[in-house]
Amino acid sequence: MWALDQPYAPRAERLLADTPLALLAVLAVGAAVAMLLVEVSILPAHVVRVIGVTAGQGALLATALAWAPVSPASSVVAIALLGLAAAASAVAAPGAAAYLAPALWIFWLAARGQLDSLGLGMPVSWRAVATGALAGAGLSIHLLVSASRTLGVQVHVDHASEILSAIAYDVGANVLAAECFFRGALFNRATRRWSFATAATVATAAYVLRYLVDPLLPKSPELVAGAVFYLALLGAINCWLLAWSQSLVPGLVSATLFFAAYRTLGPR
């Protein structure tokens, strides 16, 4: 009788349940071996970036897909497409167009209804997309104005091909993997255990840490402080966008616009 009188409260899943540890281990070992071969001059130096993109972004995207959950084969396909795109981009700037392949793969999985738990269900509210675009545009304008005044950088658009290549990388790797994992997977799981504020703090802190350990990020104190501020703000905004709209798409739009603005910045 006691069991009938008490409301049923299912236990929340472990925060890191279903993480594809074997696949992540393969990526880590493969990256370590490749970097060692580069160090002893068996492989060319540009392989480091290819491996970094494949292992780093692939790990985030594969974990998000595993938490969705989708089949392990879908995660392997995503990693393979990231690797091929990174290799094509390393050969020549136009090769960065290959980063559309992983983005299209995720779109195809979403269209089949396999990524609803990540906030990539169909259809998407245009009002939510517009809100994401406004948020990203506002943060981008603030970045461009404040960075040019305080961080010793300015807008450069004289290398359009490099900027477009970087934006393609963001669309198909950087923004895609980060939003799928830190918002669609980690934040969504955290909200089932904690309050919005706690979940957003956890997801955003992990998001900022991911960029702080990136070897490509400039290490001067001013630029690091600026990166922490804007990435934390972007992360918090995108958590709110997902909680409000129940869709990851507004955050993808917001982050893409922000990083597109960031790609135009360069030293004076």
Task: List the main descriptive attributes of the protein structure presented here.
71% helix; two-stranded antiparallel sheet; mainly alpha; 268 residues; 2 domains
Quick recap:
By secondary structure, this protein is mainly alpha-helical. The chain has helices at 2-5, 21-39, 47-67, 72-91, 100-111, 126-150, 160-191, 196-212, 221-245, 249-263, and strands spanning 153-155, 265-267.
Account of the 3D structure:
A two-stranded antiparallel sheet has the order 1-2. It has about 270 residues and is an all-alpha fold. The protein has helices spanning about 1-5, 20-40, 45-65, 70-90, 100-110, 125-150, 160-190, 195-210, 220-245, 250-265, and strands at about 155, 265. It starts with a helix and ends with a strand. It has 2 domains: about 20-110, no CATH class; about 125-265, no CATH class. The model has no long low-confidence stretch (mean pLDDT about 90). It is globular and about 45 Å long.
**Biggest sheet statistics:** 2 strands, antiparallel
Could you tell me the strand content as a percent range? under 5%
Distance between the termini: 75 Å
General shape = globular
* Helix and strand run: HHHHHHEHHHHE
According to DSSP, the number of beta strands is 2
Quaternary assembly: single chain
Number of helices: 10
Mean pLDDT: 89
In angstroms, what is the radius of gyration?
Answer: 19 Å
Helix- and strand-based class? mainly alpha
Chart the SSEs and their pairings.
Layout: H1 2-5, H2 21-39, H3 47-67, H4 72-91, H5 100-111, H6 126-150, E1 153-155, H7 160-191, H8 196-212, H9 221-245, H10 249-263, E2 265-267
Antiparallel strand pairs: 1-2
Helix pairs in contact: 2-3, 3-4, 3-7, 4-5, 5-7, 6-9, 6-10, 7-8, 7-9, 7-10, 8-9, 9-10
